[in-house]
Amino acid sequence: MAVEQSQAAEGAIQGIDPQELAEWYESLEDVLHRYGPEKTQQLLVQLRERAYHRGVMLPFVATTPYKNTLSLEDQPRYPGNLELERKIKSIIRWNAMAMVVRANKKTDKAGAVGGHISTFASSASLYEVAYNHFFHGRTEDHTGDMVYFQGHAAPGMYSRAFVEGRLDESHLEHFRQEAVRGQGLSSYPHPWLMENFWQFPTVSMGLGPICSIYHARFLRYLQHRNILDTAKSKVWAFLGDGEIDEPESLGAITLASRENLDNLVWVVNCNLQRLDGPVRGNGKIIQELEGAFRGAGWNCIKVVWGGDWDSILARDYNGLLLKRMGEIVDGQYQKYSVSSGSYIREHFFNTPELKELVDHLSDERLEKLRRGGHDPEKVFAAFNAAVNHKGGPTVILAKTIKGYGLGEAGEGKNIAHNTKKMNLEELHQFRERFNIPIKDEDVDKMPFYRPAPDSEEMAYLQARREQLGGHVPARKPTDEKLVIPDINSKSFSRLLAGSIEGKTMSTTLAYGTMLMGLMRDKSIGERIVPIIPDEARTFGMEAFFSSYGIYSSKGQQYEPVDRIGADGKPQLQYYREAKDGQVLEEGINEAGAMGSFVAAGTAYANLGINMIPFYVYYSMFGFQRVGDLIWLAADSRCKGFLVGGTSGRTTLNGEGLQHEDGHSQLVATTVPNLVAYDPAFGYELAVIVQNGLKRMYADGEDIFYYLSVYNEEYEMPAIPEGDGIQEGILKGMYKLRSTDSGGDQKVRPQLFGSGTILNCVLDAQKLLAEKYGVGCDVWSVTSYSELSREAQSTTRWNRLHPAEAPKQSYLEQTLAGIEGPFIASSDNVRLVPDQIRQWVPGDFTVLGTDGFGRSDTRPVLRRHFEIDAECVTYATLESLARQGGFDKAKLPQVLTDLGINPDKVEPRTA
Questions:
Q1: What is the DSSP track for 81-136?
Q2: Which residue from 714, 781, 780 is spatially nearest to 509, judged by alpha carbons?
């Protein structure tokens, strides 16, 4: 064989004696035979280094030939019953198809519910091999595999769950019809809608990939901190080749190799088609991805050709077939997938030498040559190699045909992704192709099929899952209840007491102080996961580095530059990385930090242990940058605290338009299970966090929190004495301070303030009293969204229960009998306070920061947005004037006295 290969067309080099080349090739074969692939690899590396040393620069090649990475010789014996597995897979294919088609037929007149058949059709073998031999459920001695299923393949997972007995026909009948909770099946993986089934939302493409990487790292984090033994768990992510175009898909792959995450396996279903057509019609997506992943340090396994091709490739002595495989672009491969054997023979095997390789095959046989992703033996070999690979992550690039088995309904066609209907002839063809035991007269009814309980198929299927630890996916929340520190404990007491007289503090610093105290708590301290995207010094949290360490799987292999001070003495605060470090500092990577947040915040359900993530980030780079991941966290029933540091359109004063956040509190209201607060003082923050910990980790509520904290420093008061303060903080508002009404004052204004702007409102209260003789009440509004949500719920109840005595919300009870006027000011856009307008019993004026931010001093910016003390004062007097409580004729002079320019540019459009 060596001589034949030495004479290969691809082996000839013009100007070098063919005999000498033959001797080189024969030597290579000899080394390979005697010493094996590993030593041969080392020899070639040495030769390459010698060539470099002699000035020979070799071209960089990131890809390998367009064939299977694993040779036939490396392919292990298949451990299962291929025939039984084929029958089971065919039944699952049928039910998945029938479920989607029946649902659309049923709902056609009311607006078909949609669904996808073709994705699972192309990936059925990938999933079934994994289900039968790899996916491990969570047991007492195994933390379970984490499987990120490709969203569009969900019907296949429902179908398997039906065959396993986990779902019944009623569930399948109500695919995408889930208004009645628990009756139907969600369109894609949604834990919020199917809380005992799905674990990870994945259909917002690109989010599954990045979350899987950070999930794999979080498993190592728990292992290295000796919190949980996760050594047996693998993280699997099943992705589409079109999905890889999403920036989040490839954005963090170097982290996986840098962290040596050999507990991570990606399976990319390369059916060569996106939603509308070819992924790389004029290129080769498998080769492109191989180059990207190998360049990033991943172990890359290509599964391109099924076993039918082995004997053909074995006869390709001159490499012409391999060369031809590499020449064809994906668009043409898609064409071959829908073409006849005669077309393939004429156009693919387009030379006499190539035709000779397949002259023993009929056109029908040629047409049925399988792609690698449809061959269970090839798939098993790749999966087996992946789970046994050490030192880094693995990606498997499996070539398939989109809509495999759908025939004329969509197999390999550009319409495949949207296929959700099949006519009677196509149904019969599908039934025949996969040998489904359904009678001719019943095919048009598309009955769901489950083998008899005592059948060989059912016994095999159940035995495989039992051996692998049970069903997957399965969401299993823990019953563990954490002991939460009391509000008067050390963790919170400093904030309740306020700052020392003359000392100032920002709410961001208050947050850091409180978190440090919680991490020292014996009950929950080790469960806290501080997450910071390379902004710890901005938030005044650098002390966390030396105290708790930054998690690094490699420890610290260098001496930090700040370990020794200029005076030669050791420093107490320095940059410390440690294998058991508690802080996750993600680098400049908010999306990755959200991946860690979700992994930690869902550990209670996916790993059976409560972990408490506190993720503090640059406020503007939260909802605005990673809002999709925050929505995913909500769907995941995630728990924990999102903390928007350096909040406020005017409080973060020097950073400018793309940094100054005034709308995250508004966006937070759109996430149904996110509880959002905008505290002004440390004691408010303490009360909110203590109650949040209790609600999530003692009471077991499936909620998470968003907190705005600011970088402006001012004196922090102690928590006021009196009843109802803590309740008011948690409900959303409480009366903070009052001044006496003037002698002839008949109308008493009510001023609402939030966050740092509460101080401006308090200053306005003082101005009104001292300069205009107007007394008023100031309310600290900690959460407009909580006030609004409870009021909405109360209003709805009253509307739907007309015969019952009406209820009153906390907001309505609190403001009952108060006529106003009401004036609100905050560092947020006006729509944040506007949420409660419906329930405010009087004239309501809202000031806010609508418009683009810009750099300047805080006083200038607050005047620009008209939210400072003077603007609050004027708004109050103008409101009073409309109610007859102030002489309207004096308002122009008030503007002058307060230095307000009525003709300046409108801030919203400035």
A1: -HHHHHHHHHHHHHHHHHHHHHHHHHTHHHH-----SHHHHHHHHHHHHHHHHT--
A2: 714
What is the mean pLDDT of the segment spanning 40-52?
87
Q: What is the pLDDT of residue 407?
A: 66
d(CA 833, CA 872): 14
What percentage of the chain exceeds 70 in pLDDT?
Answer: 97
Would you call 26 exposed, middle or buried from its count of C-beta atoms within 10 A (0-12, 13-18, 19+)? middle
The values of phi and psi at residue 56, to 5°, are -95, 110
Q: Is 320 left (phi over 0), alpha (psi -120 to 50) or beta?
A: alpha
List Cα–Cα distances, 543 to 491, 512, 549, 707, in angstroms: 17, 9, 9, 21
Q: What is the mean pLDDT of the chain?
A: 93
CA distances from 774 to 105, 135, 748, 769, 886 (A): 69, 71, 8, 5, 9
pLDDT confidence of residue 9 = 42
Cα gap 653→651, rounded to integer Å: 5
Tell me if residue 185 falls in helix, strand or coil.
strand
Question: Would you state the pLDDT for residue 693?
Answer: 98
Residues 230-239 as b/e (b if ≥16 CB within 10 A, e otherwise) read beebbbbbbb
DSSP category for residue 868: S
* Alpha carbons 456 and 464: distance in angstroms, whole number: 12
Residues 513/494, Cβ–Cβ less than 8 Å: yes
Give the burial string for 879-889 (b: 16+ CB within 10 Å, else e).
Answer: bbbeeebbeee
With 0-12 / 13-18 / 19 or more C-beta atoms within 10 angstroms meaning exposed / middle / buried, residue 142 is: middle
Phi and psi at residue 546, to the nearest 5°: -75, -30
Q: Which pLDDT value is given to residue 800? A: 98
**Which residues are CB-contacts of 4 (< 8 A; sequence separation ≥ 6)?**
317, 318
Tell me the range of 21-30, 105-114, 826-835 where mean pLDDT is highest.
Answer: 826-835
SS3 300: strand
Q: How many CA atoms lie within 13 A of 425 on its CB side?
A: 3
Q: How many whole angstroms separate alpha carbon 400 and alpha carbon 374?
A: 6
Which strands sit side by side in the sheet containing 750-753, from one edge to the other? 733-738, 777-781, 750-753, 822-825, 844-847
CB count in 10 Å sphere of residue 14: 4
